[in-house]
Amino acid sequence: MSGSTRTSADLDPRRRKILFRAWHRGMREMDLIMGRFADEAIAGFSEAELDEFERLIEVPDRDLLGWITGEIAVPENYDTELFRRLKAFHRHDKPIHA
């Protein structure tokens, strides 16, 4: 069970694969953060944004979660506009499962 709220039927194969990977990271908290963001934004990603999102998917869950929550400083090479959009999308004022 992924938790995805969108269908992938209207997506090209690359976007389908990225959406699947965003929802199947390993750590449920990161599935919810990355998956929900991908549900909302993936259809509108440019090719460069798809590249960047794939790069973020490769970051270990613990590191990425620490960057998003502010517990760990974001390395300069990952502090991109897309990462800042992902971080802003995750609201820190309510539980992740809400």
TrEMBL record:
Keywords, comma-separated and alphabetical: Chaperone
Origin: domain of life: Bacteria
Instruction: Quote any Pfam family the record assigns.
Output: Sdh5
- Span of the signal peptide: none
Which family does this protein fall into?
Belongs to the SdhE FAD assembly factor family.
Write down what this protein is called.
Answer: FAD assembly factor SdhE
The protein's organism comes out as: Bosea minatitlanensis
